[in-house]
## 1
Amino acid sequence: MLKVCIFGGGAIGGYLAAHLARAGRCEVSVVARGKTLDAIREHGLRVTTAREAFTVPVRATSDTRELGAQDYVFITLKAHQVDAALEQIAPLIGPHTTVLPPTTGIPYYFFHAFPGRFDGSQLPALDRDGRQWRAIAPKQVLGCVYWIGAHASAPGVIVQDGAKAGCPVGELDGSDSPRVRALSELLCASGIDAKVNKDIRAAIWVKFVNSLAFNPVALLTQGTLGEMAEAGGVLPVVRAMMSEADGIAAQLGLTIGPAPDKRIALTVGASHHKMSMLQDLEARRPLELEPLSRSIRALRDLTDVATPVLDMVLAMAQLRAVTAAHAIKTQEQHA
């Protein structure tokens, strides 16, 4: 039986682990800590979707040495948390392990097996000293895009936002390999729509740009997706940000579709959903803005494409992140 580890017990990690554990087609484990670890151990994982609610026991630990090498490892941390977790992730990776790192920003392996002049390029701005490249060899990576709107209403309790959820997976070279087919079949059998995408890099780009545009705007407006859609003048800003980013993709040689208007319509369909960065702001957690900003800067520098709207919105969002961090620090000092 395949061994699958979910490294991170938050909303996305909990959603995946619960579905896989309920299906019983693989050995599932979750690496978590603190209250989340305690809740999973005591109560299991509880997931509520538009159609059902279920609770399932899942093996949970904070020590990856207990688990050993896995067949598949999903790293469901925030992008800015991965570097510090590499040592803990290491015991999970053997010579035949397949790893699925986060793709909120542009991942470190983006140009591995790239069909163009940037093939093999590393991005020092995104992967300091090539640490992730060395720790998780790109040849052991599958691309995965999480189109799962969800939030943790309490430790170990996951609520899906919106009726649809999926996570396409794919090889960076577009091949239909045994490992990607096996994972796709496993996830689909568990109730998670995970079709094999033969252009997963383009899919990663679309999700990255979606986060790049919607998250900073959510941070500034503090609105749900539905509230953003109803407010005049907000979605045109999102559209301009997406269009600028897609201009960079064109220079890289990526073919991106669908058009921004269709992507925006699909996103705001989950009208009650709050973007992850707004959830983090309200929960007083660190904001995942810097990986997005660094990603677009790194690729803009490669292509020399101007991004005036992106630059403006990201500058304001960065200030909002700084003031939020300052407020949290002040409250803690006076607590």
## 2
Amino acid sequence: MKTAIILGATGLTGGILLRKLLDDDRYGKIILFSRSSANLDHFKIEEHLVDLFHLEEHADKFKADEVYCCIGTTKSKTPNDETYKKIDHGIPVTAAKLCEKNNIPCYLVVSAMGADAKSKIFYNRVKGKMEKDVLEFDIKKTYIFRPSLIAGDRDEKRTGEKIAKYALSFFKPLMIGALKKYRSITPQEIAAAMIFVANDGHHQTRIESNEIAELANAEKYSE
């Protein structure tokens, strides 16, 4: 059986991913690196409460068959630009560095639709720079997931995001063809797609939102 590492297991997508992996017979151990506990008592879980800004200090424990990085924040939650970059860029890149160092063959990381290292939009630029830097490491398989707006209930209040979700939900039936990638997507779909790709592979390194939804369906039918 395989061992998986999850970064961000206390978040929306990471929490769902954790539960899916705990129910998956292909996995015997799930290692968590987090600032706070996932508060789950399960024989598969090995939990390390650490400062993720200093993840390299725990390289000796960072060993697995796959690494899932679901780390992310928002400008409203993290208004300081430097702290924001340390979270959305620094942590995923450090994880990639540790994958290379410890010969972990598969790295899966959540980015965002519109990520572009040359973008004038701060959020997109940070995500794009993260993608660029992650891909510079010598990892056998790296997959970058670029979801559209993630539809799901979060603990923190995000009024603007809720309005956007309702709007995208209303127009979803009309978003076909090239517009499909702009449809909102659920964290369940992202988690399912990541697990499917980790086990079955994919022909592309960057996976857009509409493709994530298709892969999630593939995972559902493979169960």
## 3
Amino acid sequence: MINFIKNFRKDENGAVTVDWVVLTAAVVGLAVAAYTTIETNSQTLIDNAAARVALENDF
């Protein structure tokens, strides 16, 4: 049992997998945050442009 624990502590394959999973999750999280920010700002810009066009058509 002691040898199993020592071998388990020396084995780094699982640690590398965990690192890649965490890194991938961070990249996906940043992509979602960027998408949300761009979508919100784009919608605001479109709404402002539509209001300006509607205002110009009133004259």
